[in-house]
Fold this protein.
Amino acid sequence: MVIRILSLAALIACAPSAFAHEYKVGEVLVENPWSRELPVDMPGGAAYFTIHNHESQADRLVAVSSPRAQKCELHLQASDSGMMNMQHTATVDIPAHGEVIFQPGGNHVMLTGMDKPLKAGEQFPMTLEFEKAGKVEVQVKVESADTQTGHDEHAGHQADNNGG
Ligand SMILES: [Cu+2]
């Protein structure tokens, strides 16, 4: 009986949310890929997820692509002395036994060149390619705009993109 209770506790500890969905390639886990519904006049979007590396050596996210967007770019965002700073990067390092979080106000995959805007409730495929673990296709769930807050930095960034 004690053993049964313990194993149940372990199961719960490994599942932070009943709604989380995750994808595995080698020892790399991509957790809960999601995006946010955007107004119709917004031609781009952003995708977020958490990457866990259970391998004892570091890996690297080297490419992202989706049939839903012409271009998927890796963007890093760092708060530098109070100023939000966004930069395009070719790759993202995933430390050994570490995790990298992509989230609003932080790292994200910028989606541009979409033929139609993202609608809440839909999901679309996106392929992540890791240098060592290889490729994995995930389903990105689109959530409604009001389920999350604090995205203002990113709206400003997209305005910049439109100008260039
Ligand atoms: Cu961006």
In short: The pocket of copper (II) ion is lined by residues 75, 86, 108, 110, 157 (CB under 6 Å).
